[in-house]
Design brief:
single chain, 203 residues, alpha/beta, Nucleotidyltransferase, domain 5, six-stranded mixed sheet, 7 helices
């Protein structure tokens, strides 16, 4: 495994095939208050590329182009939050997307444990450490422990997707999952526009 840290943006010419695993690190969970600091990516090849954003400008044209590339599937865990952060700070609608958390909720109905750590353990036999989850991602110099933690969040998503895809097909819920994934950019826009909790489909 290699972890490559890029300052400001992805380098020119770097590609991730037709499916890239993506995650973000922020200063908190409020997209209007807490800045986007780091974006992690992996092609599923065991390597991770981490982009430490320039929070003064968020000028990252290569990263922005990748997130908006309709020919590349962006693979997230809890895409709703990450997609909202991309909209808020990079001004890009991330599409198309796949969310392992949504897929898990559609097929792993035998449990209420749908966190990334739970999926990694059950689906691919990986015991992930979440020790650095609440660390300071705004530091200009990130620690080796932070970099390793950030990378781990994207290194196993492709393998999890493979298992979840098989489960979705088995349970006849593939098309339902695709419809949920397609709605995610709109769900993120609703969050940013002031409807984070209200169910607009309710009576």
């Amino acid at each position: 495994m290699t972890i490559t840290l890029h300052k400001g943006d992805l380098p020119d010419g770097l590609t991730f095939g037709d499916c890239v695993a993506v995650d973000t690190e922020t200063m908190g969970l409020n997209p209007h208050r807490d800045p986007l600091c780091l974006v992690q990516l992996s092609a599923g090849d065991g390597n991770a590329h981490l982009v430490q954003l320039d929070r003064a400008t968020y000028d990252a044209p290569n990263l922005r182009a990748l997130m908006g590339d309709k020919n590349v599937l962006k693979l997230f865990h809890f895409a709703r939050f990450d997609v909202a952060m991309m909209q808020r700070y990079l001004d890009v609608v991330t599409t198309p997307v796949y969310c392992t958390k949504i897929a898990s909720k559609l097929v792993r109905t035998y449990t209420d444990r749908h966190g990334l750590k739970d999926l990694a353990r059950e689906l691919v036999g990986i015991d992930m450490s979440k020790q650095q989850q609440s660390s300071d991602w705004g530091n200009e110099t990130l620690t080796e422990a932070q970099l390793a933690y950030a990378a781990s969040d994207v290194l196993h998503l492709h393998a999890m997707k493979d298992v979840l895809d098989a489960m979705l097909a088995r349970e006849g819920r593939t098309e339902m999952a695709k419809a949920c994934f397609a709605f995610l950019p709109v769900r993120a826009a609703l969050d940013l526009a002031g409807w984070p909790e209200e169910d607009i489909f309710a009576h």
